[in-house]
C-alpha cells in the first residue's frame, strides 16, 4: 500500500481526472484511484490495446465516470462507416470523440473527413461527449460538446478567448503530468513527448538528446518547454498551475500520469 501522504500528493494537485493508457497502465487499477478523481479517460492506442469494455464498464461507480477515447475515422468507431465497436459500447461508458493520432490510422482512415464524422458521432450519442480539438478546433467547437484541449503554451490565452467570446460549454484540458521536482525524472518522463511539439522541435539542436542526458542548449530548451506542454513539479507547483487553468476557464484538468499510476492510486 502507498502511504496516506502519497494519496495527498495527488489530491492536493487539484486534478479531477486521470487519463489511462492501456498499453502502459493497468486499466484495472482505475478502482484504486484516489478520491477526488471523478473522471477517467481511457486513451485509444489501437484495437490491440482496447480493454474489455464490459469489464471496464464494471469499474464505473456513483462517484467516478469513465470515458473511452474513440477516433471517429477508425474502423469500428466510424459513424459514417464501420461503427461496430461503438454500437457495442456499454451505456455506462462515456466517450471522448477525437480525429485520431496518425500512429493509429490506416492510410484509408487518414483520408476520411473529420468534421462530418464528429457531427454524426455527437448526434448518435445520448450523453454529453467530450470532443478532442487537436487539429480540428473549429469542427470540435461546432459540435457544442465539451472541448477536450491538449495543454500548450497558449492554452490559458485560448481559454480566456473562448470564455470572452461567450462559449459557456465545458472545457477539459489534457496534460502529461509528473509529480516531482527532480529535473532528470521530469525529462525522462516527458522530454521526448515535449520534443515532438513543433515549436520545441524547431528550437532543439539537431540530434539532441531529449531525456535526462540532454545537456547545454538542448537541456535549456527542454526544461523550459516541459513547463509549457506538461504539468510538472512538486504537488504545490502543479496545484497552482491547475488553479490557473481553472481560473482561465477550464472545468476539468485531465492528467496523463507519465511516470505511472502510483502517485494517483491508493495501492
Automatic annotation (TrEMBL):
<protein>
    <recommendedName>
        <fullName>Luciferase</fullName>
    </recommendedName>
</protein>
<dbReference type="InterPro" id="IPR036661">
    <property type="entry name" value="Luciferase-like_sf"/>
</dbReference>
<dbReference type="Pfam" id="PF24114">
    <property type="entry name" value="DUF7388"/>
</dbReference>
<dbReference type="InterPro" id="IPR055812">
    <property type="entry name" value="DUF7388"/>
</dbReference>
<dbReference type="GO" id="GO:0016705">
    <property type="term" value="F:oxidoreductase activity, acting on paired donors, with incorporation or reduction of molecular oxygen"/>
</dbReference>
Amino acid at each position: 500500500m502507498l502511504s496516506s501522504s502519497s494519496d495527498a500528493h495527488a489530491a492536493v494537485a487539484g486534478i479531477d481526472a486521470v487519463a489511462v493508457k492501456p498499453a502502459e497502465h493497468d486499466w484495472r487499477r482505475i478502482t484504486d484511484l484516489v478520491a477526488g478523481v471523478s473522471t477517467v479517460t481511457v486513451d485509444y492506442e489501437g484495437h490491440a490495446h482496447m480493454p474489455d469494455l464490459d469489464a471496464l464498464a464494471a469499474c464505473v461507480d456513483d462517484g467516478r465516470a469513465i470515458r473511452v477515447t474513440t477516433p471517429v475515422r477508425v474502423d469500428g468507431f466510424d459513424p459514417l462507416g464501420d461503427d461496430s465497436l461503438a454500437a457495442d459500447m456499454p451505456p455506462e461508458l462515456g466517450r471522448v470523440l477525437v480525429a485520431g493520432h496518425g500512429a493509429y490510422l490506416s492510410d484509408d482512415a487518414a483520408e476520411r473527413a473529420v468534421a462530418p464524422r464528429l457531427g454524426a458521432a455527437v448526434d448518435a450519442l445520448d450523453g454529453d461527449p467530450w470532443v478532442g480539438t487537436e487539429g480540428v478546433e473549429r469542427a470540435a467547437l461546432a459540435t457544442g460538446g465539451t472541448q477536450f484541449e491538449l495543454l500548450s503554451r497558449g492554452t490559458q490565452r485560448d481559454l480566456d478567448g473562448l470564455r470572452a467570446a461567450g462559449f459557456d460549454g465545458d472545457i477539459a484540458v489534457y496534460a502529461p503530468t509528473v509529480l516531482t521536482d527532480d529535473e532528470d525524472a521530469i525529462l525522462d518522463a516527458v522530454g521526448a513527448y515535449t520534443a515532438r511539439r513543433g515549436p520545441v522541435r524547431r528550437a532543439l539542436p539537431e540530434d539532441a538528446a531529449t531525456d535526462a542526458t540532454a545537456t547545454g542548449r538542448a537541456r535549456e530548451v527542454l526544461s523550459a518547454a516541459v513547463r509549457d506542454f506538461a504539468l510538472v513539479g512538486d504537488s504545490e507547483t502543479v496545484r497552482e498551475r491547475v488553479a490557473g487553468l481553472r481560473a482561465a476557464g477550464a472545468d476539468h484538468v485531465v492528467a496523463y500520469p507519465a511516470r505511472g499510476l502510483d502517485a494517483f492510486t491508493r495501492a
